[in-house]
Design brief:
single chain; about 375 residues; alpha/beta; Rossmann fold; globular
Length: about 375
C-alpha cells in the first residue's frame, strides 16, 4: 500500500475541520518523517491503512484543539502545578508507581479516554455518564491485563496521544526503521511540550485539580526540555534490573508487531537488539540530563522495594516529596497491592535467549546505569 502524502493528510484534516490556521514547519516535518517511516515498515496493507487513518485523525484532533483554544483564550491563562513525572525504561515499575500515586486525590492525571478525545473538555461530576468514559470501561473488560494493567478511570501515559498530535509519537507498537528512531531521539521535543502544556490546561479547565501526575517512558529522553517547560516539576525514576526489563519489553513488542506485520518479516533477534540499543541509549541521555539538572529534582523508586514493601516504599517517597500518607490513602494503597500482586492478572512468559540477548550483553550496555544506581 502507498502511504498518504503530507499534503493529502493536511487536506483531509482541513476538510474535516474547516480549520484555516497554520500548519507550521515543525508539525509538517513530523508528519513527513512519520509517513516515510511507515511507508518503509514491514507491515501489512491493512495495518498501513489503519495507521494512515490514525495519522489523519490525529491531525484532525490537533486542528480541533487549536480551534477550541483560539475560541477560549482564558484556558491558556491557567496555571499548572508541578507536574510530578514518573518515568524510566519500560517494565521497571512505572505503571505500578503511577497507579499508586494516582490513588492520592491531590493529583490530576491523564486518562486514556480524555487524551484520545479531549473535546469537549471533561467536566467534574459528570464523568460517570460521559460516553467516552463508558466506552473505555467496556473496552477494558475485554483486555488482557497480564502484560499491561489498564484502568479506564485511572492514570494512563500522557505521551501516547499528545505526542501524536504533534506528529512526534514514539510508535512503540510498530517496527519503526532506525532512521525514524534517530530523528526521534535527536528532536528537541520543545514543540511537543508547548502543546503538552496547553492540552493539560484544556483538560483541567473544567475538571480540577491542577497538580498533574504524569507518566510515559519516552519522557526519559527529554528531561531538559520537560524541565524547561515545567520549571517546578519533580521527576521520579523507577529502577529494575535491565536483564529483567529488556527481554520483557522485547516480548511486548513481539506481540504487538505480530498483529501488524507480515509473518516472518520481523525476527525476534532484531526485536531484542532494537530494544537493547534504544533503551540503553535513552538511559545514557537521561543520566547526562540528570547531571545537568541536579539531583534535587529527582527521586528514585526501586522495583524490588516496591514489590517487597509497597507501603514503606511510598512512605519514604512521600517524605521526600514533603507529603503525608493519611489513613484513607494507606487503605487504598494496601488494597491496590493486594489486588495487583504478582500473578494476579496472569503471567507474562519470555526468555533472554529467544530474543538473541544475554545477561552479559545487557549488563555491559547498562554498566554505567547499574553502577550509578546500585542495580
Amino acid at each position: 500500500m502507498t502511504m498518504l502524502t503530507a499534503d493529502a493528510v493536511i487536506a483531509r484534516a482541513r476538510e474535516a475541520t474547516s480549520y484555516s490556521g497554520e500548519c507550521d514547519a515543525s508539525l509538517r516535518e513530523g508528519l513527513e518523517v512519520t509517513l516515510a517511516a511507515f511507508a518503509a515498515a514491514p507491515m501489512t496493507a491493512e495495518a498501513k491503512a489503519s495507521v494512515s487513518e490514525t495519522i489523519v485523525n490525529d491531525l484532525i484532533m490537533r486542528f480541533r484543539i487549536e480551534d477550541f483554544l483560539s475560541r477560549n483564550p482564558e484556558i491558556e491563562e491557567q496555571e499548572i502545578k508541578g507536574p510530578l513525572l514518573v518515568t524510566s525504561v519500560p517494565r521497571s515499575g512505572t505503571t505500578a508507581t503511577l497507579a499508586m500515586l494516582g490513588l492520592d486525590p491531590r493529583f490530576r492525571y491523564t486518562r486514556d479516554w480524555e487524551l484520545r478525545e479531549p473535546l469537549p473538555p471533561p467536566v467534574f461530576g459528570e464523568e460517570d455518564r460521559d460516553p467516552r468514559a463508558i466506552a473505555a470501561r467496556e473496552r477494558s473488560a475485554m483486555m488482557d491485563q497480564s502484560i499491561h494493567l489498564y484502568d479506564p478511570d485511572g492514570p494512563e501515559e500522557d505521551l501516547v496521544a499528545i505526542a501524536g498530535y504533534d506528529m512526534r509519537q514514539f510508535h512503540a507498537r510498530y517496527p519503526m526503521r532506525q532512521e525514524y528512531l534517530d530523528w526521534y531521539i535527536a528532536d528537541d521535543f520543545r514543540s511537543v511540550y508547548r502543546l503538552h502544556e496547553r492540552l493539560l490546561k484544556l483538560l483541567q479547565w473544567r475538571r480540577p485539580p491542577n497538580f498533574w501526575l504524569l507518566k510515559a517512558p519516552p519522557h526519559l529522553l527529554r528531561f531538559e526540555a520537560f524541565a524547561e517547560r515545567y520549571p517546578d516539576s519533580r521527576i521520579i525514576m523507577t529502577h529494575r534490573e535491565p536483564t529483567k526489563t529488556i527481554p520483557s519489553i522485547a516480548s511486548m513488542y513481539d506481540m504487538l508487531y505480530n498483529m501488524v506485520c507480515e509473518p516472518g518479516t520481523v525476527d525476534k533477534a532484531w526485536i531484542g537488539r532494537r530494544c537493547l540499543e534504544f533503551w540503553s541509549r535513552g538511559m545514557q541521555i537521561a543520566m547526562r540530563a540528570r547531571d545537568k539538572l541536579g539531583e534535587d529534582r529527582f527521586l528514585d523508586v526501586y522495583n524490588r522495594d516496591l514489590v517487597a514493601d509497597p507501603i514503606g516504599t511510598f512512605e519514604q517517597l512521600y517524605d521526600q516529596l514533603g507529603f503525608k500518607i493519611d489513613a484513607k490513602l494507606r487503605v487504598r494503597l494496601e488494597d491496590y497491592h493486594q489486588r495487583n500482586a504478582k500473578g494476579a492478572h496472569g503471567t507474562h512468559s519470555y526468555s533472554l535467549e529467544e530474543y538473541g540477548l544475554s545477561e552479559k550483553k545487557i549488563n555491559e550496555a547498562f554498566s554505567e546505569y547499574r553502577d550509578r544506581f546500585g542495580i
